[in-house]
User: Which sequence fits this backbone?
């Protein structure tokens, strides 16, 4: 069974880490799967895509459309992208659900922990006023209302979070 699993959450919340582990786990199960990480896509598209609301929404919809096309061809899509806007995420849910399940995974983590992790050093720069439009500091993050999965990545280990996802996929007959 094909599906899209979409990791949303603020920077350093664990989207890249958990999506890569899931990708490897699905590959080991011989699944056809693609991983679309927001940062990789942005590095390909370069400066053409910015961080204003319009660009961010366009980016989310673009990843949704790619996922729809992948799923239509029997390939599981894993997306890891902040995707801060609810309306764009819901648009994708509607589009992908025409054919396949859509699983929104909210990587939830308290801001103080995110700032301690600060994997890319960007929270520090945002606090210093050196970056504008930084999600959670001076740009919005709209929490998912009803995500299929919530992972408290500040409270639980990486292994626990991954097992939680795997169990969800098994319980819903998406993997065996
Ligand atoms: N439960 C967890 N899930 C995911 N990452 C975790 C967890 N606990 C600690 N971490 C750490 O938090 C950081 C998350 O970074 P990353 O995956 O790059 O975040 P994002 O892609 O959301 O910006 C990593 O250093 C990871 O080891
Ligand atoms: Mg990332």
Assistant:
């Amino acid at each position: 069974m094909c599906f899209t699993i979409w990791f949303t959450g603020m920077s350093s919340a664990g989207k890249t880490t958990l999506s890569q582990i899931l990708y490897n786990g699905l590959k080991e199960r011989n699944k056809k799967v693609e991983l679309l990480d927001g940062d990789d896509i942005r590095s390909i598209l370069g400066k053409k895509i910015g961080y204003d609301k319009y660009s961010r929404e366009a980016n989310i919809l673009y990843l949704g459309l790619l996922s729809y096309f992948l799923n239509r061809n029997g390939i599981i899509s894993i997306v890891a992208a902040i995707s801060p806007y609810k309306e764009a995420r819901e648009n994708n849910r509607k589009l992908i659900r025409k054919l396949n399940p859509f699983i929104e995974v909210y990587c939830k983590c308290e801001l103080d922990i995110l700032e301690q992790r600060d994997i890319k050093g960007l929270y520090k720069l945002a606090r210093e006023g050196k970056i504008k439009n930084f999600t959670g500091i001076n740009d919005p993050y709209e929490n998912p209302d009803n995500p299929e999965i919530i992972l408290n990545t500040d409270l639980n280990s990486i292994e626990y979070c991954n097992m939680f996802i795997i169990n969800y996929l098994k319980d819903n007959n998406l993997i065996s």
Observations:
- The longest strand covers residues 102-108.
- Helices lie at 15-28, 38-45, 53-72, 86-97, 111-117, 122-127, 158-171.
- The beta strands are 4-8, 33-37, 76-80, 102-108, 149-152.
